[in-house]
Design goal:
single chain; about 270 residues; two-stranded antiparallel sheet; about 10% strand
């Protein structure tokens, strides 16, 4: 039976979606098993501290998947699965068992994930680890065979159970949503515009931030919105927010490129929370 791969930021609602899917599949008469960090005794607070621990955690997940991926069970893999190479390995395991797979990604803002992480008692140990994992996150791409079909779901959206089941059990093609489509690079050079606008804003904030105090409002090019400083800005922190924004914008491309500056200002203001 098929493999359903949850993929996303820490504390982005993956377990909630996994449980929703398990309940829906069970109601349709399918046997379901959820493999998670907890089910294979992976301690999130220590597993993502360094590459050695993380590699061991992925090995535990993969071993359990090898054991459970049987003909009569739908397997839901509820973990970060944020590395492209690891998702490819999962795809190969499913393919070797002659069973289909799909990727389900909850789309949640970085600031919301950090807030949920704090509310959950910081299961990943510290907010710094969560921020680092979000920075290293390798966005799934529905054009890649190992990420296909891809179901990217906004927090306010219901889980598209019927679409998922049709794609997996009936091999029906998925109609791509706007949020799962990569912005065409030919549209006035989208990535260049992203980089140019965000660099200009970072430069303006750094120039004004030398003598700034918390609460100061900084005017930036490209928008009437202002950056509200909550402390003295640092280049490294702004670069981190820039990387996160660019990753986010690739899956949430604005319909109007003139909105990039305003969106980035909002991202900076939220990122200081």
């Amino acid at each position: 039976m098929p493999l359903f791969i949850l993929c996303g930021f820490p504390c982005s609602g993956k377990t909630t979606r996994a449980n929703e899917l398990a309940e829906a599949l069970t109601s349709k008469g399918h046997a379901v098993s959820i493999i998670s960090d907890e089910s294979v005794n992976v301690d999130k607070a220590t597993a993502y501290v360094n590459s050695t621990e993380e590699k061991m955690a992925r090995g535990n997940l993969k071993s359990e998947l090898d054991r459970q991926l049987k003909d009569n069970i739908c397997v839901i893999l509820d973990s970060l699965n944020y590395i492209k190479g690891f998702r490819y390995e999962l795809y190969c395991i499913a393919r070797s068992m002659k069973t289909p797979s799909c990727v389900i990604q909850p789309l949640v803002m970085n600031s919301q994930c950090l807030e949920w992480h704090q509310q959950a008692g910081r299961p990943y140990g510290s907010d710094d680890i969560v921020s680092a994992l979000m920075m290293r996150f390798e966005q799934p791409d529905g054009h890649n065979r190992w990420d296909k079909p891809l179901f990217a779901i906004e927090p306010h959206e219901a889980l598209p159970v019927e679409d998922i089941c049709a794609a997996i059990f009936e091999h029906r093609a998925v109609v791509p949503k706007y949020s799962t489509q990569t912005q065409p690079l030919s549209d006035t050079n989208f990535l260049h515009e992203l980089d140019s606008v965000t660099r200009g804003i970072i430069s303006a904030v750094m120039k004004a931030g030398g003598n700034a105090v918390p609460g100061d409002r900084v005017a930036v090019p490209g928008t009437d919105d202002m950056v509200v400083l909550k402390g003295r800005p640092t280049l490294s922190a702004l670069k981190r927010v820039q990387r996160q924004f660019i990753s986010y914008a690739k899956i949430h491309p604005p319909k109007d490129l003139s909105a990039i500056a305003s969106l980035f200002v909002d991202f900076i203001n939220r990122g200081q929370d």
